[in-house]
Amino acid sequence: MLNATLKSLMAHKLRLALTALAVVLGVMFMAGTFVLTDTIKHSINGLVNQGTAGKNVIVRGISSFSSGGLNGSQDNLSGNNRPLVPQSLLAAVKGVPGVAIADGQVQGTVSIVDAKGKALGPQGGAPTVALTWLPDRKLSLLVLRSGREPQKAGEVALDNKTATSKKVKLGDRITVTGNLGPQPYTVVGTMRFGTQDTIAGASLVAFDTATAQAVAGRPGFFTEIDIGASPGVTTDQLVTRVGAVMPPHYEAVSAAQAASETAAGFDSFFNLFNTFLLVFAVIALLVGAFLIFNTFTILIGQRTRELALLRAVGAGRGQVLTSVMGEALLTGLIGSAIGLGLGIALAYGLYLVLKRSLSLSATSLQILPRTIIISLAAGTLITVFSAVLPAMR
């Protein structure tokens, strides 16, 4: 019966290809979705973890649904809604035993245009983020690419991707619109975010602390205070010590915890994105199931004499059924394997496009065992179950 099944498949290659095509498309979308979202999440998590380099502890406002009368709320890449940290806390933090370095970071969204009024920031989607250029480089991932750091009012550093793509040169004048309204600034430097020209497709503009506070509408406040530990002091020890001097509504957490929470926020978004795409993959597989059902119904009708001959030479009903189901199983496995390979290739192509537009960190494709198992199982089972009723008839 195995030989009969294999001969039937080889004798009808076109039939095999057309039947498997429905499986290939559904599995391709499913595998591609898993690989693409897993790879993007891995890349963004790597960028987020880079942001903790040099930091041990972060002082921040305690997140709440309402600011409760506290000043402002955070408006940054992570999208967290937290009370701003008073600048007066910085002196208290620096006085804690075990604190080697500490400084306040300011973040806020702005818009930027060139001297001719042409927009420089991303058009839709990613924001333009104003940041503090911290004097101590251990606490910041902003790396000078050319020129110098902004040191006073009227000076700004621009991320390298925006500067390159928009042809902005050192010494050019740009207009930044933030809390102060449209204000002119001179580009004195270009920068990178860690190893990337920017992060998540955003445009970045960096100022000295006082200017960043004014532009972002945070005078006298920071988004957070970043802290580095002295040699011999552990992160847990420093969290406890700094936490002891915190007033109500503020907390000290490890930089690793803050990064994990930020990554979780990105993961939640991409999980929704993953679910949205998987819906289309499932629809494709269900449509494929209908096509497979019709195909096997027609084919078994055409093979009535062949199957009757098998019964005549001694094959039992169960053996004939097994032969037909074996054909469906092999068709499903082959189609699923091809779909898996094409899905990985599709994900790789899309990732290259997104990597360039969003400035994602370099990473290898994330092909998890879950992706392989679910893709092969879904395509194979859909094919087999779709062929059961025609085979039993």
Describe the structure.
The structure is a single chain. The protein has 393 residues and is of the alpha+beta class. The chain has 2 domains: 174 residues, no CATH class; 200 residues, no CATH class. The protein is 51% helix and 19% strand. It has 10 helices and 13 strands. Strand 8 and strand 9 form a beta hairpin. It is elongated. It starts with a helix and ends with a helix.
What attributes characterize this protein structure?
393 residues; 6-stranded mixed β-barrel; 13 strands
Helix content: 40-55%
Q: How many independent structural domains? A: 2
Cα-based radius of gyration, to the nearest Å:
30 Å
Task: Provide the spatial order of strands within the biggest beta sheet.
Answer: 4-5-10-7-9-8
Separation, N- and C-terminal Cα atoms: 19 Å
Topology as a string of helices (H) and strands (E): HHEEHEEEEEHEEEHEEHEHHHH
Shape: elongated
- Characterize the main sheet: 6 strands, mixed, barrel
- Characterize the quaternary organization of these chains: single chain
Write the layout of secondary structure elements.
Elements: H1 2-11, H2 13-50, E1 57-61, E2 85-86, H3 89-94, E3 99-105, E4 107-113, E5 128-132, E6 142-147, E7 155-159, H4 160-165, E8 173-178, E9 181-193, E10 203-207, H5 209-216, E11 221-222, E12 224-229, H6 235-244, E13 250-254, H7 255-302, H8 304-312, H9 317-358, H10 369-392
Parallel strand pairs: 5-10, 7-9
Antiparallel strand pairs: 1-12, 1-13, 2-11, 3-12, 4-5, 4-8, 6-9, 7-10, 8-9
Helix pairs in contact: 1-9, 2-7, 2-9, 2-10, 7-10, 9-10
